Amino acid sequence: MSGTTTSGAVGSAAGEPAAGGEASAQDALAVLGMVAYLELAAFSRLAADAGLAPGLGQRLELSGLARQSLDHLDRVRDRIEELGGELEPVMAPHAGVLVEFDTRTVPSTWWERLLKAYVGYGVADDFCRALARTVDERTRQVVEEVLEGEVHTDLVVRSLAQAAQSDPTLASRLALWGRRLAGEALNAVSAVLDAHPEMRPLLEAAMADERGADAQQRLFALLTAEHSRRMGRLGLAA
Amino acid sequence: MSGTTTSGAVGSAAGEPAAGGEASAQDALAVLGMVAYLELAAFSRLAADAGLAPGLGQRLELSGLARQSLDHLDRVRDRIEELGGELEPVMAPHAGVLVEFDTRTVPSTWWERLLKAYVGYGVADDFCRALARTVDERTRQVVEEVLEGEVHTDLVVRSLAQAAQSDPTLASRLALWGRRLAGEALNAVSAVLDAHPEMRPLLEAAMADERGADAQQRLFALLTAEHSRRMGRLGLAA
């Protein structure tokens, strides 16, 4: 990572005519660093889920999804390097970002675990996507491609929706669990914003077109709407 | 998996002129199933190790090694399918083979964990390599390629050897741990052979050129020698 300040000077960092030059490269690296860490965390989590899967087929499927997270991480690394950064120092400030969240949301069943993967980390992905709105075109593309179809949507939606439909008690327990996950996920986003004041301007810019009192409230409204949409896909009350 | 018996009839299963026909395809599938399961187990273990790594660099390195295990698994799957088998049913009989071993060898430090990865699972790899001696040429090649340089040799040897050299107390503790791991690994191999009597003829054939009273003793002598070689590379007493 270069030691340049975030002056507004227009430059062509990484040989690419970015709108904001150096400052925008720093912003892009901040977002990429967070995405990189989230992919590594997703890898660890999916691998752990795989180890606890009730059958060999699901274990293989989840292991394959864990591998995809590392493939995503490679693409993020490539973009970081194109921007003149290095993976480790760029992602290091975000290491451990989910520890508090994970400690506060320990799933007690396989279904809770699956739902956490889908709606809990879904919030983190939406947060990254939102922040990436105003970074350079190429970086935004990478972030969106990497996060698209994230968190093993098919497997999770299929089996969770089926289970919830056939068992109303499970469905209402999972709806409750989903609300708890969303609340804790928003707390985690707050903590990230508190710990990284350098992200505030990026957030302000990204939320310029959203309605709400301030940037954080707009972000939370957006994240909550996406969460509700996700719960709706599972047939669960948000 | 086909439901054929292991008659000695010479056939050209999977369109390949194998020496023993159907019987040899069944033997090849038995070995491949075990290797496949060991790769999946290696994936889970390396991913778990990655999550516990003391630094981000090691976490990334171990995660990458976990991914390699799944790449290996893909190659084994390809060969299984070439032989007319299917991954899940072929590997299912070996699922859980390491559970007892893992329960009996819980590492209490990061160093013990690394050593377990190298010498504990090294025994399992050697066992597969030994069994693969008499299966068809192409299967043997796949098994050898997949197990070659297994268990993240470089990372482990480098850091373990350095640590042991600079700390004699650690070195003697690890030497003791290595002996315990080897003993438990040999117990695990015995358990596999007891649970899979169909592997006995394969073992007899594979050990024909080794010295020893019976096939299992020959195998154990071979596995012990390989274990000593591995400990030697680390500068530890076997």
Total strands of chain A: the figure is 0
Spans of chain A of at least 5 consecutive residues whose pLDDT stays below 50 are 1-19
CATH architecture of chain A: Up-down Bundle
Structural class of chain A: mainly alpha
Number of domains of chain A: 1
Distance between the termini of chain A: 41 Å
How many distinct helices of chain A? 10
The greatest inter-chain interface is formed by: A-B, 21 and 21 residues
Strand content of chain A: under 5%
Radius of gyration of chain A: 18 Å
Q: What is the subunit arrangement here? A: homodimer
Helical content band of chain A: over 70%
Pfam families (chains A, B): MiaE_2 (PF13794)
Protein name (chains A, B): Ferritin-like domain-containing protein
Organism (chains A, B): Actinotalea ferrariae CF5-4
Provide structural commentary:
The structure is a homodimer of 238-residue chains. The first copy, chain A, is mainly alpha-helical and 238 residues long. The first copy, chain A, has one domain (19-233): Ferritin, core subunit, four-helix bundle (Ferritin, Up-down Bundle). Chain A is built from ten helices and no strands. Chain A starts with 21 loop residues before the first helix and ends in a 5-residue tail after the last helix. The A-B interface holds A 40, 43-44, 47-48, 50-51, 56-57, 59-60, 63-64, 66-67, 70, 87-88, 91-92, 95 and B 40, 43-44, 47-48, 50-51, 56-57, 59-60, 63-64, 66-67, 70, 87-88, 91-92, 95.
Which features would summarize this protein structure in a list?
globular, Ferritin_actino (chains A, B), 238 residues, Ferritin-like (chains A, B), Ferritin-like domain-containing protein (chains A, B), Ferritin, homodimer
